[in-house]
Amino acid sequence: MKRNSRLSAALHALLHMAERDTPMTSDDIAACLNTNAVVVRRTMAGLREAGLVESGRGHGGGWVVTRPLCEISLLDVHLALGEPDLLQIGHATENPGCVVEQVVNSALDETMKEAEDILLRRFGEIKLEDMAAAFRARSAGHAATAHRTG
């Protein structure tokens, strides 16, 4: 099953941007994400429309985060990306007149809706500042381990 990694990529980019004191170009972000600048610009467009980032042109230009990380949740980023499907499980519709299929589809639809509601609620609770703090803690731990073994 193909996975949609746009949310992961957008979060990755936002955290890199937040760690920098200067704007990041699309090429800079693309290098961090191991992709190309066109993909970055396409992803950033939704984030810009949602007011999460802005971009400047010319020398010294690039992308910057426009709000404090403590005010941005995973849900905000998810919504800015156009609310892509969170769960990929679907049901068959070849024979919608079949009573068995109707029961199966109903059970799947109800369960998937409940699961999505839980996931979206949790996305709203997680702030980018929490993720940035976790990144800084892991980086410090990694640096300390490298220092001891080096």
Question: What is the fold-level CATH name, i.e. the topology?
Answer: Arc Repressor Mutant, subunit A
Order of helices and strands: HHHEEHHH
Overall mean pLDDT stands at 87
**In percent, how helical is the residue content?**
55-70%
Number of helices: 6
The Rg value, from CA coordinates, equals: 20 Å
Q: pLDDT under 50 segments (min length 5)?
A: none
Main CATH class = Mainly Alpha
What characteristic shape results from the CA principal axes?
Answer: elongated
CATH architecture type? Orthogonal Bundle
Please state the structural category. mainly alpha
| Beta content | 5-15%
**How many beta-strand elements?**
2
- How would you characterize the largest beta sheet? 2 strands, antiparallel
The total domain count is 1
**Kindly, what is the distance between the CA atoms of the first and last residues, rounded to a whole number of angstroms?**
41 Å
Q: What is the CATH homology-level superfamily? A: Winged helix-like DNA-binding domain superfamily/Winged helix DNA-binding domain
Question: What is the subunit organization of this protein?
Answer: single chain
Spatial strand sequence of the major β-sheet? 1-2
